[in-house]
Amino acid sequence: MVKLDEHPLMKKLADPGIQLTPKGRILGNYILNNPRKAVFMTTKELAGICKVSEATVVRFVTQVGFESYGRFQQTLRDLIDTDMPLTERMDLTFSGDPDTNRFQYEIYKDIENLKHLYESTDTGVMKKIIDCLAESAGIYIIGSRMSYPLAHYMGWAMTKIRQNVQTLNGSDSTSFDYLAIAAPESAVIIFTVSRYPNELLRLGKHVRRTGHKLIVISDNALAPLNNFAHLNLAAPSRFIPLFSSPISMMCLINYLLTELAGRYGDNMNKHQQKLEQTYRENDILFNLDNFLK
């Protein structure tokens, strides 16, 4: 887990040797002492509470290594989200005017998060992940607690594309058994969302020891499991969610599934024909002809 005072940004702000103007030092001290307040402030609000100009705020974030205030704020948001307890999230979610249209606001947040995903995702990493999934003999997809539904969805959908796919519950210790006896150099996808269960960290370390390829899909560029990944994708939120922000991660999943399906072509058609035959023979899925009989 990344602690606030151990993060490079906070260390930089606390470093007396960093070249900051006196007003820049005022800004740095305020952020050090009030990171959970500063993360939600506009440049105007931060300038006002520190009694400096907005131009000073803009110069300050450049001095500490960020190309824009938005990038600085996102880094601070990601850092705070890694360990913010549920009680504080509740206070953030239900603060302000009780008459606010929460339905519209939740949709607005998801739209903003999808825009951020579109602007920030590394398409080169996505291509490498798709290559890995297409070439691996076996694929294991793991989630735990809040991230298990994401793993289950991707795992179930991927069984419609290729063979040798298995979904594991990271809360079940038998996951270690399955990974220990998996085919050599299998691909392992672990989904992890705030506040990052330690059981997934242990599984990530286990995957690396067993020599499999570890792919991590998270909601935060600072998610602890990213440190063990061969490849990782993050779908960060511009907001600190009450529980999690699954929409952007679902968008990543659907893209990966679609691209992977395109790789298999005729082989996938044969695979799906077998599945459809099984569905018909065992009356597994709804069929209008049978329903009308």
From TrEMBL:
- What Gene Ontology terms describe what this protein does at the molecular function level? carbohydrate derivative binding; DNA binding; DNA-binding transcription factor activity; isomerase activity
Task: Identify the residues that the record assigns to the HTH rpiR-type domain, covering every copy.
Answer: 7-83
- Name the InterPro entries on file: Homeodomain-like_sf, HTH_RpiR, RpiR-like, RpiR-like_SIS, SIS_dom, SIS_dom_sf, WH-like_DNA-bd_sf
Determine if Transmembrane is one of this entry's keywords. Answer: no
One GO process term, biological-process aspect: carbohydrate derivative metabolic process
Q: Which UniProt keywords apply?
A: DNA-binding, Isomerase, Transcription, Transcription regulation
Name of the protein this chain belongs to: Sugar isomerase domain-containing protein
